[in-house]
Task: structure prediction
Amino acid sequence: MSRIEFPTRSGLSLAGTLELPPGGNWQATALFAHCFTCGRDIRAARTITRALAAQGFAVLRFDFTGLGESEGDFADTSFSSNLDDLEDAAAWLAEHLAGPQLLLGHSLGGTAVLAVAERIASVRAVATLGAPGSPEHVLKQFGDDLETIGKKGSAEVSLGGRDFHIRRDFIDDAREHQLAERLRALRRALLVMHSPVDTIVSIDQAQQIFIAAMHPKSFVSLDDADHLLSREADARYAADVVAAWAARFLESADVSRDDAVLIRGRTADRFTCSVQTGPHRLIADEPASSGGAALGPDPYAYLCAALGACTVMTLNMYARHKKLPLERVSCEVSHQRIHLEDCEDCEASERRVDELSRVISIEGDVSEAQERRLLEIADRCPIHLTLEGRIQVRSTLNRGTGS
Result:
């Protein structure tokens, strides 16, 4: 989990959280939109995005303008500005990882992802949770204040125990959006999830969305869940269903060659870059102390990981071949630059060398003689031999390829 910030077209900075799978290896990107006047850290948003990350998604959730840690005044926002925020968030994902293939929205956030999907070319699937069939539906929450806003131009409205300043512009904008027309032209896979006992957004709103949309479309009941999916079990169930359903429609785009690792990074993003090897995607970065955003391991950490992974693979392969009673191998690798005190004839620049320190732990009923042999085999793993051998790096420069 990493906190990020991204700019909007209006010049504001929005705060977000990027959830990544364990190890950082993600298969697809997703963008989550929270409910009306909520925030990215509402329990359902945290639970759902973390559960999706555990199943291979890189998921961005963020605070809309004027909410949570994001800049701006909520009174200046509207449904249209929410769509702009979503498009700007999608642009950040596209620049740093890959454009979102899955859009997932909760309540009015679900209405928003339905409305914005046509504006984001990378989107392949859209899922909603307790979403209204029209942004105008949210106006019912204003009660008698709606008439006051119409007459006076604005009013303080209490929503979820908090007061929000709502202007007539918000009302007019919500009424202008005709979602049914957009649903008929969606041309993305759609999953509608709704609870039949939802007292905030009735299930007839889900029916309205489902009927207006074209195939492929699916509906899944959230049974006795409340509107906010406040029970963790309900939120996890929703995430599991979305992940299983979306897998059918998502693609692994821009797959690199099997014999190469592709790394991309924009100059403006400082050290952050994407790493792709075949269908597997990761992130590389520098820690905040070095001027990075700490979104992923640094290059030396990947080097240590390469040696450690090769060591574990090699020892387990050897144990299987020799039928040793070895059960598990762990390898901890660290990198440092050390000073060679006894190298009097070396140039000053040669007196410091890179050292990889490797600590190998084994589990199993292995004899001392077998332990010594395993240590010898570790020194013969392919990456170890490559690092201690003679390496030549040949570089060419391609200009203007866009890759």
In short: The longest helix spans residues 299-322. The chain has a mean pLDDT of 89. The chain has two domains: 2-246, 298-388.
